[in-house]
Design a protein that fits this description.
This protein is an alpha/beta fold. It is built from 13 helices and 19 strands. Bound molecules: iron/sulfur cluster. Iron/sulfur cluster (SF4) binds next to helix 6.
Amino acid sequence: MKVYIETFGCQMNENDSERILYLLENAGYERTNDIAASDLIILNTCTVRERAKNRLYGHIGNLKKLKNKNRDILICIGGCTAQDLKEKIIEVFPYVDIVFGTHNIPELPELIGRRRLTNKSICSVENNGFDHDLFKVRRKQSFKAFLPITIGCDNYCSYCIVPLVRGNERSIEAEKIIRNIEELVSGGLIEVTLLGQNVNSYGKNLKKTYTFSELLEKVSNIKGLKRIRFITSHPRDFSKSLIDIIKNRDNIVKHIHLPLQAGSNKILKEMNRNYTREDYFNIIENIKKKILDCAITTDIIVGFPGEEREDFLQTIDMVKKIRFNRAFTFIYSPRTGTKAAKMEDHITLDEKKKWFRELLEIQNIISSEENKKLVGKKFEVLVEGNSAKDGILLKGRMENNTIVNFEGDSSLIGKIIPVIITGAKTFYVMGELIRNNS
Ligand code: SF4
């Protein structure tokens, strides 16, 4: 039996797909990239933005032809859209066999078995208290892993649907995290990315509590682990001790992703972000003062309800002053069920698009200028695979998260190698492998 899995959205979803694959392989399925040859189709979905949901609808619509050709093929929709829309998915697409929520992954083999015995589509989205088992995961690569340390979120930023579809924040015990990473390192792991909606609030629900800084210190002590990344940080909970640990530990990368979202205090308040632009500036100043060459990336929302041109210009002001290495920018899209979806929004979409382009233009110039500063310098690069651009060059990642494309043999994939940077683009740099390290 063959299973085809497609993943939309964030690294948390990537990790969920790896958990799904582990369970299905144990149930006798083999992964295929050929959707037409599969017996089981899983779409692991994202609902963070309206566009992602609309694209998914198009995708499910396309599966009807496959189902008509082969009535035995099972179509399963999981992830955040499934958790959000529940039975509605089956109402709109009656040929969908199973809808399973973000809490119901461990149930999936049983749901599939049940569906094969009945004629009725199944929707399972209740939180039945299943554990997030770090150990039951089929990883794509042995040298690189995404590892959740917290699931869910308690922050309720007014625009965000994540707390509604992923539930309240739960941390995974530090002992389990450490044991899991040690096991992975003995199997060849080089780089781990600790995942959470707000990693900085790690440990809140645990009996034996560690702060995120303490957890990071413990992970950093694991022998043989070369690189540690973490996403996402929340400015409200970003501590000074964390900056010190990043500074003092060689295997914690000098890259911090710190979502700004907006540069105006009025909008930050409406977003329920619980920090001000001054707080954010202070954190950045501390980081830049203590950690030399630390890359800083961010997320920004343009056109939040009530945002005026003056508010937007304050975002631009912060972007120019901070000079983010990269910013992931989005036009605000209302998510049903959130507080912001009920707020009055008087700025037209055309106006928001204009602001968005303005921001993008400024940020792209900054990203490109920051990348140019790397030209002529040597860096250690973890080779991740072939470049998405042409498939011939190799793609690696510098410690500061910059992507490097360069010529090389695929035997280098999974290794850390020295590269000299020879050219800069907006979103990546070009490099040359240093063969004898001279
Ligand atoms: S911190 Fe805010 S934006 Fe991030 S997941 Fe939680 S509610 Fe959403």
